[in-house]
Amino acid sequence: MTALSMRGVHKSFRGRSALHDCTFEVGRGSVTALVGANGAGKSTLMSIAVGMLAADSGEVAVLGHARSRAGISPGLAYVAQHKPLYRSFTVADMLRFGEHANSHWDHDYARGLVADADVPEEARVKTLSPGQRTRVALALALGRRPEVLLLDEPLADLDPLARKAVARTLMADVAERGTAVLLSSHVLAEVDEMADRLLVLGHGRIRLSGALDDLLAEHYLLIGSGDPATVIGAGEVVETRPGGRTHLVRGPRAAAGGDWLTEAASLDDIVLAHLAAPEEVA
């Protein structure tokens, strides 16, 4: 079942397009990574999905209903990139605030997430490290027991061990409750560790979408001299690298032979090629 969807969403700022005809779905029980360079439109897309920003046109639905115009839609939680928390509050104050501000709240679960992160409840937010603030913000979001969770660059402030701990927390929530997660990132290593689906956003457009395993299976590197069109059959060349010998191809893998070799494509190969490719290819 679809947990979050956009259909034909457009958004411009002062006549400059930020999102153009964005269409995608996020299913229940999946972790979908929204990947793109800085300035690609990821935060704008997140803000529209949450309801903090209105689209110029198009449709946004959360759990099968048109997105709420009166605050965050029921069943949805959001952690913004800058992790907004009250600096003068203690962590315990923030947890009590979460309890009073939300009609659906699991206080024991939220406290447990804070304890698992070794963040003292008596500590004031302004004294916390960026990574600790991230863990508190995530506890506040998950304490709502959301069905849809949106995370804008959630792991940027975390060291490798903390990233793994947060990933375990998210994956457990997805496995146990079927939570739908949409997380934005420009770090592909994070995507490979956590996501099962991928959305590539470039210059305000969805350039590529699909299950991660399917996308990896659909692409390969073709290496050799000559015209790749003579060997790729129904496939299409997404990118030809400088020097003209290495091509990223999408489609059934060509039979290697003669002057041609094939290799598996990495996630980096695929994402970077589609971001650089002409729009009609992606």
UniProtKB/TrEMBL annotation:
Signal peptide: none annotated. GO terms for molecular function: ATP binding; ATP hydrolysis activity. Keywords: ATP-binding, Nucleotide-binding, Transport. Residues 4-228 form the ABC transporter domain. InterPro entries: AAA+_ATPase, ABC_transporter-like_ATP-bd, ABC_transporter-like_CS, ABC_Transporter_VariousFunc, P-loop_NTPase. PANTHER family: ABC TRANSPORTER ATP-BINDING PROTEIN ALBC-RELATED. This is ABC transporter ATP-binding protein. The lineage of its organism: Bacteria, Bacillati, Actinomycetota, Actinomycetes, Mycobacteriales.
